[in-house]
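Lab notebook, bench 4. Still working through the backlog of constructs that have no structural model yet. Next entry is a single chain of 156 residues. Request: give me the structure tokens for it.
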Amino acid sequence: MTIPQRYSPKGDKGLPHNAVCKVNKSLYGLKQASRQWYAKFLASNNELVVQSLKSSLDAKFMLKDLGPLRFFLGLEVARTGRGISVSQRPYVLQILADTGYLGCKPTATPMEVNLKLNQDDGELFSYISLYRRLIGKLLYLIITRHDLSYVVNKLS
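Model written out:
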């Protein structure tokens, strides 16, 4: 890191405790970024280790403990004695409400079998940005609904 241009600390005290520096190289652009990210954080079943980690992070950063994880990026997390369950039910309900299909009945096959789609057949969709946004939401939904991956792949 380097000090931003035209910055000089007051007096000869050096840099203040909470100095702002310019990062020369972003961690997120590197191939090893994911390894470095997980090297900084850990998870544990040991409550003492977790509290110790929270205290050390709170000393460096201003943290707010929100308690046990319930929702994260559209994922609903539930803990039971048998393990952890991850669901996107609220996210699916939001997609259905946004598209006007909230009252529809479910089907075992989300797409007609052996359906051949062609870009030259049918009418052009007039709201292409809405279609792209819906496909993006469906791609995110595949995290927990692997049965939709074939259909979403065909539509994207």
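Notes after review: The first strand starts at residue 71 and ends at 72. The CA atoms of residues 34 and 86 lie 22 Å apart. Flag for follow-up if needed.
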